[in-house]
Amino acid sequence: MTTATSARPLRRASVPRVKTAAVARHQHWYWLAAGLALFFLIPFALTNFVSINRDLYYGIYIVAVFGFFAAWVGCANEWPRAVLTRNWRAGVGLGLVFVGAMVAIVVNEPATSRPDGAEFLAAIVWRGVLYGLADGLILSAFPILAVFAAFAGTRALGRWGGKAAVGALALTVSLVFTAVYHVGYSDFRGEKVRRPLAGDVIWSVPTLATLSPLGAPIAHAGLHVSAVIHSYETDIFLPPHAAGLDPAALQLARR
Q1: Which of 51, 138, 211, 215 is most buried, taking the most CB atoms under 10 A from its CB?
Q2: Is residue 7 part of a domain?
Q3: Rounded distance, CA 249 to CA 200, Å?
Q4: Coil, strand, or helix at residue 87?
Q5: With contact defined as beta carbons under 8 Å apart, do 132 and 154 qualify?
Q6: CB–CB of 205/65 below 8 Å?
Q7: Coil, strand or helix at 105
Q8: Is residue 61 part of a domain?
Q9: Which domain covers residue 43, as residue numbers?
Q10: Rounded distance, CA 173 to CA 175, Å?
Q11: Cα(200)–Cα(208) distance, rounded to whole angstroms?
Q12: What are phi and psi of 146, to 5 degrees?
């Protein structure tokens, strides 16, 4: 009697744990949907309907990206530190390797004039490093990690074929994030959006290969720093390109 009685609570207690794990996995899809909506609305609202200083816009965007990622890590993962430090050496190393690929992409574009002195150094840090890290985090690292988290503990990740399928889905979701974010800017609603989509396939590799949140942001920061140095007046690498204009010029840029 004692053995039978003690066994029943153990069987009943196992059911909520299974349900809780399934609910936790599903939460990542809600975070992905929220991220898509938020990071379409930020460029759409702040660059289509108002005239805003470009560097102020970057500040709003950077805070939103790191705040959103921190909220996801804190609410949707049991061990935030494990997420942030997973394979960090491989992520950093591969990210730095792919910086070279990003530099090669930028230097193929025409060189433009740029500021000097403190203004130039500030642009490297603000528009290059910080804005680049934020872009790589929300366009690649977050969607890739969230998709893998949504399949954590399932049979799909227990075999190589399943891992490859989840990886392909994660890259697809990253491409969706890149497309949705960029069409928030008026000048990317056309053929031009193909450029960041092609770039996303490259700069996503360090995070896709290592599942480190550091890889893609480092590679993307390399793209932005190179753009600031080589093509400061770029109309491709550092959107928004119409922000900071007066209303008349902004209207002209939309045509």
Answers
A1: 215
A2: no
A3: 30
A4: coil
A5: no
A6: no
A7: helix
A8: yes
A9: 26-254
A10: 5
A11: 11
A12: -65, -40
Q: What is the pLDDT of residues 85-131, one digit of tens each?
A: 889 999 999 999 999 999 999 999 999 999 999 999 999 999 999 99
The first and second tokens of residue 108, run together, are 């193929």
DSSP codes, 7-29:
HHHHHHHHHHHHHHHHHHHHHHH
Ramachandran region, residue 82 (left: φ > 0; alpha: ψ -120 to 50; beta: rest): alpha
Tokens standing for residue 85: 């430090």
d(C-alpha 206, C-alpha 214), whole Å: 8
21 occurs within a structural domain = no
Rounded-to-integer distance, Cα 58 and Cα 125, Å: 12
Task: Quote the CA–CA distance of 229 and 147 in Å, as a whole number.
Answer: 34
Return the structure tokens found at 114. 């740029």
What confidence score (pLDDT) does residue 248 get?
46
Q: What is the DSSP letter of 213?
A: T
Q: Taking the mean position of all CA atoms in its chain, how far away is CA 26?
A: 20
Segment (H or E) for 173: helix 160-182
Q: Is residue 11 part of a domain?
A: no
Query: pLDDT, tens digit, for every residue of 211-243?
Result: 999 999 999 999 999 999 999 999 999 999 865
Sign of CA dihedral 176, 178, 183, 187: negative
Could you give the number of structural domains in the chain? 1
At a CB cut-off of 8 Å and minimum separation 6, what does 10 contact? none
Neighbours of 205 (CB within 10 A): 20
